Amino acid sequence: MKPSSLAMAMALFFLPLALIFQSLYLVNGHFVVETGSIKVLSPVNLISKHDGAIGNFGVPDYGGYIVGSVVYPDKKTTGCEPFDGDKTFKSRSPRPIVVLLERGGCYFALKVWNAQQAGAAAVLVMDSVQEPLVTMDSPEESNDADGYIEKINIPSALIDKAFGDSLKEAFKNHEDVVVKLDWRESIPHPDKRVEYEFWTNSNDECGARCDEQMDFVKNFKGHAQILEKGGYTLFTPHYITWYCPLAFILSSQCKSQCINHGRYCAPDPERNFGEGYQGKDVVLENLRQLCVHRVANESNRSWVWWDFVTDFHLRCSMKEKRYSKECAEDVMKSLDLPIEKIEKCMGDPQADEDNQVLKVEQEVQVGRGARGDVTILPTLVINNIQYRGKLERKAVLKAICAGFKETADPPICLNEDLETNECLERNGGCWHNKHSNITACRDTFRGRVCECPVVNGVQYRGDGYSKCDAFGPARCSIDNGGCWAETKHGLTFSACSNSDLSGCECPSGFHGDGHKCEDVDECKEKSACQCEGCSCKNTWGGYDCKCRGDLLYIKEQDTCIERHGSKFAWFITFVVLAAVAGAGLAGYIFYKYRLRSYMDSEIMAIMSQYMPLDNQNGRVQTMEAEPLRQGSV
Predict the structure, then answer these.
(1) CA dihedral in degrees (137, 200, 274, 259; nearest 10)?
(2) Which of 5, 18, 328, 481 could share a disulfide with 470, CB 3.0–4.6 Å?
(3) pLDDT in tens, 287-298
(4) pLDDT at residue 281 above 70?
(5) Tens of pLDDT along 24-34?
(6) More confident site: 413 or 50
């Protein structure tokens, strides 16, 4: 194989990995370390001010500060192993404990977790060499981190080696080392409005990072919408894309992961080019979500982006194989979003030209001013400063509130017990029967759920978003079971039957799906009144049929009969009736005579058993009667 051919083969082999890493890191990036102020208050000889790189996990106290006593452990100085006992660290004063640990040996997050378990209120990690500060990040993927990473709720910071050595030396000399960790100026607060952006991804199969960002969107949605509707914030969503190198645009990898001829790409969700979803599916959905925000913003409904993203994640998950354009359009319909405008905003993904929406995304992805390049997902930027810490509802809200000008805080920043009723706005995008004012939207503390309700004992069934159908024997009592019903000319017809537990069926004389029924024209369809000489007239729900002459129409047989017979027919009828009457009378007389005779004979037979009669002389011959007669003389 020629060297050039070998190089090409190797390039194609490593391209998928290169594209994946390129999605996370940018060449010649502009990185900025977000810092907080650390001031030494004691001892006197160490009073000074230093910077600390804020950890990208835990909960930095944005807008606040901590004054605490520094403690350096006697052993396990890296904090990579759990400290012995519960609440190991004890201060010489009632102040909170700030634990000083050394860098190296394990993840930054594990050090902070072990210190938190031992009673620390904050952690300072001293660098192992004198160098510029870096951001302490949480592990990308780690089974070890799954148990503790989300449980860290204290702040932490990385400090340079010289500063750490001075603190350690003072503690070993039994001096009371007091420091003040101050985050009040970490977020700029120039005016009454906070501008923040969230870099995210529509892919829900990228592990812990994807789960973290979707949980945040769902939990923070209520706060975000209140801030946006009140005009307190300006929110902008963003999505990371990368481009395919020119030499590989025609490769199968680029074609499956990119749109617009390699200009905008995303990694394959399963990292398997042979099956499942492709990278370009993710790019298209990212583009759609960007356009949802743009189009909604044009109608002053920018906050609908939070509804769309949340519902898309619930209804169109990759894990359930429903990640598709069709599912996205169903979500847009439920939120009253103009599908045609959004499609127009997305442009043509097959065109060999720039997409204006995604082009802007690639430009703003590069760092500017105090904000570094966006290289990992999810990333939150507040007033052009990258947020550091746990992506959690209360922590993020506190950081946003720290970005308002003094005394310009909105009420939400002053009220921790916030309750939002998301069902008040378009029923939260859930199913709604406007006629009977029945909705599937149920307000919860974290947001809302779309769940078919139970009304007056009638259960509704469906997905809660686009459909809820009444079910059960009493379903027709509420809004006619959701079926068609209409009244005209004093007549009422309904497609709901209480004998059926579900479903709608048009009544006789109508056709349709049960939700909409139209009158059947029996005359035009020749389904009735087809007797010879008959004239048919259609009516609502039925028809009128008239026979020729004086004939009488019989609907069941669809035929005509004589209404008035001839005199001869009347005579014959009279004779027949008279004969029937005579026969009946004769039968009655015969029956009465025979019955009487039969009764007389039966009575005589019974009496003859007790008093036999002498038909010749009429005397009683019984022996028992003679003494009576003699005794009576």
Answers:
(1) -130
(2) 481
(3) 999 999 999 999
(4) yes
(5) 333 344 456 77
(6) 50
Q: Point out the least confidently predicted range of 191-205, 433-447, 450-464, 599-613.
A: 599-613
Helix pair 356-365, 279-298: axis angle to 10 deg: 100
Q: Which residue has the higher pLDDT, 265 or 474?
A: 265
Distances (CA, A) of 107 to 116, 156, 525: 15, 13, 80
Nearest CA among 400, 426, 427, 425 for reference residue 412: 400
Half-sphere exposure of 290 (CA within 13 A, CB side): 25
Instruction: Report the alpha-carbon distance of residue 620 to residue 103 in Å, rounded.
Output: 144
Query: What single DSSP character describes residue 31?
Result: -
Rounded to a whole number of angstroms, the distance between the first and last alpha carbons of the chain is 162
DSSP string, 315-357: HS-TTTT--SHHHHHHHHHHTT--HHHHHHHH--TTSSS--HH
Residue matched to tokens 């939400």? 412
- Sign for the pseudo-dihedral over CA of 612, 614, 620, 624: negative
Q: What are the tokens at 12?
A: 């194609």
Q: Is 182 helix (H, G, I), strand (E, B) or coil?
A: strand
Q: Which residue has the higher pLDDT, 536 or 609?
A: 536
What is d(CA 108, CA 79) in angstroms, rounded to the nearest whole number?
Answer: 9
pLDDT in tens, 308-343: 999 999 999 998 999 999 999 999 999 999 999 999
- Give the pair of three-digit tokens for residue 448: 């809302």
Phi, psi angles (nearest 5°) of residue 86: -95, 135
Rg (CA), the chain: 46
Within 330-478, strands assigned E span 379-382, 385-386, 432-433, 438-439, 441-443, 448-450, 454-455, 458-461, 469-471
Pairing of strands 194-200, 379-382: antiparallel
CA distance linking residue 64 with residue 121, whole number of Å: 14
Determine contact, residues 109/138, Cβ cutoff 8 Å: yes
Residues in the chain: 633
Residue 258's contacts (CB-CB under 8 Å, 6 or more residues apart) are 243, 244, 249, 264, 265, 279, 280, 283
Most confident of 53-62, 88-97, 270-279: 53-62
The pLDDT score that the predictor gives to residue 158 is 94
User: Helix 279-298 to helix 304-315 angle, to the nearest 10 degrees?
Assistant: 150
The C-alpha angle with vertex 244 and arms to 242 and 246, in degrees rounded to 5, equals 140
